[in-house]
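User: I've been trying to design a sequence by hand for this structure and keep getting stuck. Would you show me what you'd pick, starting by listing the structure so we're on the same page?

Assistant: Good idea, let's start from the same input. This is the structure you sent:
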């Protein structure tokens, strides 16, 4: 088993993370990931509420992506539903192997709301940037539907009451997102609910649609 590289090799990047986060506070979070330990080695202005020592498994990119020096910009949703515009620098060891990642996450939720308001008035086109840089198409559709619902109501999907949440799930059901294998846990996580509650709402929606068709 190869010897684990010294984790202190990532320490020079910590002040960089602190400086970037301080310059753009409170809108930017900067995370240094240890790809050997698969844990967060450092975090500045923790918008995502993560902390040093938390797992980095959900943030690791495929090997083909880690071959690039810089990944992105790309988009993702924060745990509370806020939209983030992100870029990642791959940190390499002396043998050019991926050793860590420095991820800059910019909360653009407020800016997008301003853009959408102006776009309504000026008929501006939507941003061509992909909704989710490293996910397949159904995840993009999921994010577009949820983001649109959030924009309409002016609140995060996690803050919706039962009626508004059921309406959103009905939209996802109509788009056949929930027919896709393994989509349910992803949808539940994006909405901030349990899978059991998701299935309960889905059962109610199907029952109402069946009653309406009778």
């Amino acid at each position: 088993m190869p010897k684990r590289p010294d984790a202190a090799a990532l320490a020079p990047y910590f002040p960089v993370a602190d400086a970037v986060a301080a310059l753009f506070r409170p809108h930017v979070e900067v995370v240094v990931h240890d790809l050997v330990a698969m844990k967060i080695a450092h975090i500045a202005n923790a918008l995502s509420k993560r902390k040093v020592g938390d797992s980095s498994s959900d943030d690791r990119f495929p090997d083909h992506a880690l071959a690039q020096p810089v990944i992105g910009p790309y988009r993702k949703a924060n745990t509370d539903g806020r939209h983030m515009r992100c870029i990642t620098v791959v940190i390499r060891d002396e043998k050019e192997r991926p050793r860590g990642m420095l991820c800059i996450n910019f909360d653009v939720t407020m800016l997008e709301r301003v853009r959408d308001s102006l776009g309504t008035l000026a008929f501006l086109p939507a941003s061509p940037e992909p909704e989710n840089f490293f996910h397949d198409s159904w995840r993009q559709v999921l994010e577009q539907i949820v983001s649109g619902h959030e924009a309409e109501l002016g609140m995060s999907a996690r803050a919706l009451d039962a009626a508004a949440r059921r309406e959103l799930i009905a939209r996802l059901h109509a788009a056949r997102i929930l027919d896709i294998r393994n989509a349910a846990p992803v949808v539940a996580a994006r909405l901030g609910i349990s899978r059991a509650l998701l299935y309960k709402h889905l059962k109610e929606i199907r029952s109402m649609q069946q009653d309406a068709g009778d």
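That's my pick for every position. To get oriented when you compare it with your attempt: The CA atoms of residues 57 and 117 lie 36 Å apart. The longest strand covers residues 83-92.
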